[in-house]
Amino acid sequence: IVLGEQGQPRAPEPSFELMDPAVTCERVVHDRYRTPQPTCPQAALASVVAAGTLFPVGFASALVIFAHPDDAEFMCGGTVASWVNEGTEVHYCVVTDGSAGSNEPGMTREVMVPIREREQRAAAEVLGVRSVSFLGFVDGELQVDLETRRAVTRVVRRVRPEVLVAPDPSRLWFANRYINHWDHKQAGTLALCAVMPDAPSRPQFPELLEEGLEPFEIPRLWLASEDADTSVDISKTLDTKLESLRAHESQGTADAADWVRERARELGEEGGFEYAEGFKTFDLRDEDVDMAEPV
């Protein structure tokens, strides 16, 4: 099927560099987005609704929510570069301050924070990201509570994206190679909280109404996932993804280039491309389709 497309001190107010996200872009059907062929009519309908199989590609705006500087580049850097090339206005929301990003003796969190922020801005510039919001919660200690939920919801209501991209909070590990970081799971959960109930519910965080931030229903959610139903062809943007990762010099990300390329090749094989990134996608728009009715 071809797709169109805590206990911690209060965090500082997020910094915004936003332009008006209410922009339009040309919509085209594009064969870079694919989901596996369903095996029965019921699965076909579910695929259409859940994976967004027939929606036109060319999102006007996207918001990527992630825990640490460099997470977005690893997670979806190729997709972000592709979307930007197509005219999508992409925004970043970095939830933690990245202060635990060094094990060097003598390095402090206070010194690390501006380094990580500078590197993240540089990486975003490589990809063409329109704005970066730094929420400033403590790296390694992220909690899903009313303070963090409010901070993320503030960004979502301000940007009002057509698609929200985030890590999959259900990932506990990756194959037998990596145990998922606590903050990654919390960032993914915060994204889900923004989808429901935080961003669309008027009674939720009434103080945001006083800031002029009206409720917003997120129309689409894409979770970077090992259980992907949608593959994005990044064959033309893999080099840009790798360049953006090199901006995170303090993290030694340049040394991961071979692994990143190999992982993109593996995901590409699954999606039928040379290189790809994979997502579990949700189309949350109201549809005149009753999923309970047999096809």
Describe the structure.
36% of the residues lie in helices and 17% in strands. With 295 residues, the chain is of the alpha/beta class. It has a 9-stranded mixed beta sheet, sandwiched between helices. It has a two-stranded antiparallel sheet with strand order 7-8. Strand 3, helix 2 and strand 4 form a beta-alpha-beta unit.
Task: Label this structure with key terms.
36% helix, single chain, disordered C terminus, 11 strands, 17% strand, two-stranded antiparallel ribbon, 295 residues, alpha/beta
Quick rundown:
This protein is α/β, with parallel strands linked by helices. 36% of the residues lie in helices and 17% in strands.
Helix content: 25-40%
Strand coverage percent: 15-25%
Number of strands: 11
Provide the gyration radius in Å.
19 Å
Low-confidence stretches: 1-32, 35-56, 289-295
SSE class: alpha/beta
Task: Name the average pLDDT.
Answer: 84
State the end-to-end CA separation.
18 Å
Spatial strand arrangement across the major sheet = 1-2-10-11-9-6-3-4-5
Question: Biggest sheet, in brief?
Answer: 9 strands, mixed
| Total number of helices | 8
Shape: globular
Q: H/E element string?
A: EEHEHEHEHEEEHHEEHHE
